[in-house]
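Appendix B. Extra example for self-study. Work through it before the problem class; the solution is given directly after the inputs so you can check yourself.
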Amino acid sequence: MLQRTWNTPYPMTCALALLYTTSCDGDKPDDPVSLACPGAAAETIDAGDANGDGAVDLADAVVILRAVADGGAAPACTAAIDLVPDEQLDLDDAFSLLIHLFEGGFSLPTDVDCAGAVPLEMPFCSPLEARFSETGTVELRADTLDIEAWSLAVTAEGCTVSAATTAGTLGASIVDTPAGLRDLGYDATFLAEGGAVSAVVLGFMDAPALPAGAWSPVLALTVEQGDTCDCTLRLDSTVTALGEPVESLAVASGGAWALSAEATIDACAGR
Ligand SMILES: [Ca+2]
Ligand SMILES: [Ca+2]
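Solution. Structure tokens for the complete assembly:
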């Protein structure tokens, strides 16, 4: 496995080791739930893995978008992200990856040679949290990271998710009423077996971000009660809607930052 130098003091390095189930000789951080870490460097880089962290997810589409807009780091391996093969990196490559991930119908190339490619440098673990409000709205908060995009995989137990939308949240468009922060960008929000998925990129050529240091509503859910009024919502599972299996993550600084949350809300409230 490629080794990356993390110029970070203990216990940050320790927290990273814990999350990736490698060895760690020290004490566990007091509050590991609130500490998110970007993906680690991968041994090999496959098609679509623009940041080289070994996973193909929304963070890679954002890295391509930022590289096209000339405002971000060059992807780890150009051959891995020329997904519409024309030896050029442009919006088509980013769109195709978004369609592959969240809508289905686009297959990634299989014959990619990225020997010797170097994964992108990632910042260190940082406070980043997700939660559900009492009404079932997903909220995100980061104190130092600029969250430019997110994908959410929501599962429900004891109830049914009957609607999922970014309307009324900061994931809504700037031209919506009420206005969100999404300027063009991308919004793929679907109901799925057992819950819902939502993938949002706040901007294509520009890079708007959620406000730091505040809870931001990003996905509004409507739930129908089951046998009781208790409705447990979680962000800790993989859910598939139309595209690839989706995990819950926030995208900041070119990396994918894992999210988790769980709450039991009252599905009978207001009835
Ligand atoms: Ca990746
Ligand atoms: Ca291309």
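Self-check: The helical segments are 12-19, 58-68, 78-81, 91-102. If your reasoning did not lead you there, revisit section 3.
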